[in-house]
Write a structure and sequence with these properties.
By secondary structure, the protein is of the alpha+beta class. Helix content is about 50%, strand content about 15%. The protein contains 12 helices and 9 strands. It has a 4-stranded antiparallel β-sheet with strand order 2-3-7-6. Strand 8 (about 260) and strand 9 (about 260-265) form a beta hairpin. It is globular, with a radius of gyration of 21 Å. The N and C termini lie far apart (about 60 Å). The structure holds flavin-adenine dinucleotide (FAD).
Length: about 375
Amino acid sequence: MTAVADPRAVASARFTAAVDGGADDWDRAGHIPGAVIRKLAGHGLLCADVPAEFGGPGMTMAELGELTAHVGALCSSLRSLMTSQGMVAWAVRKLGDPRQQGYLRALTTGSTAAVAFSEAGAGSDLSAMATTVTPVGDRVEVSGTKVWVTGAGYADHVLVFGRCGDGGAAVVVPADAPGVTVTRVADPLGCRAAGHAEVRLDRVSLPAAEHLLGGAGMPLQWLATSVLTYGRLSVAWGCVGMLRGCVAAAARHASTREQFGKALAEHQLVGRHIAQLYVAEQSATRLCEHAARTWDEGSPEQIVAAVAAKHLAATEAARGAASAVQVLASAGATDGHVVARAYRDAKLMEIIEGSSEISQLLLAQHALARWT
Ligand code: FAD
């Protein structure tokens, strides 16, 4: 009998081969080679939950989560591109009409996409968004400036959220459409190769039937929450990956380097760092597994479960990466080391897809509603 290859194992192997130890070079250069991104996108691996009918691998969120953690351990910049592409694919599945869902085929065969909510005046408070989507006959006109759009430096399309009358709208904007200007963010603190960019939209006119997902004037908060929930889950799993990279590096170093005549790990204060890293990785994994299960079951709990998983995983990744640098000390204190990269990358995870403070506000609201 021929053994059937596990699709997640095949996908993980493809990512490992694509990165091929290059994450530190990409980080320093601030760039992932276009051929690497195209190849992974061409296998449908940047949005691996897209169903087979649209050419995707059709993974469950639980399977995609473990794959995302694998990529998060290899390279957070590449994992960030997965998060963005996955959010766009999910938005098309959730909001797009049957014709618009045809775009999913492009996303599983090499095309790339980014997602744009944030603006200079609308970071945590997306209700302050000023970008406008205006229906004009059978077209829509999009105007505004989006900031810090992950992956926009590489993307063929940007999913732009804006206000439309009293509600909101989501428009798939080709990056080469007249009126679009993409400007890379210079020298980001972390995820330096993730192609963060400002996207300026100057009266970009597009056919509505093709580009306006699901019609105009839907509640902006509803639009944002459905897509952000996917993003939060993805970021949370990426943080699990960083924690795994950090605990492995710290454990290896602590068991091989000796000071005061014995391995670092035998000094109890160093052992405590390793123990805390292990508990952080385990607890973040369990919360991510729970959130992925609620997503796969279509449970209404998925929204709060994703916020909780993202909040815990990002907080622990930032703290865990700092502990790992502490264990390695000078050996981990240069740009090219996995723990140094995690230290910079993990800090940003406490800001994106709802900062730690915004996550805590949402979790407090949920707890108060449930227990009072
Ligand atoms: P602000 O909203 O100005 O907040 C500043 C501080 O005040 C934060 O600590 C915040 O938590 C706190 N704060 C704000 N309001 C409250 C409150 N009510 N109570 C308590 N504390 C509060 N955006 C996109 O649209 N697409 C992307 O792909 C994307 N990728 C990103 C990638 C990176 C690496 C980064 C850094 C940002 C990215 N962003 C993206 C933008 C990101 O979503 C925003 O940075 C984030 O929402 C926070 O907004 P802000 O930076 O304007 O901070």
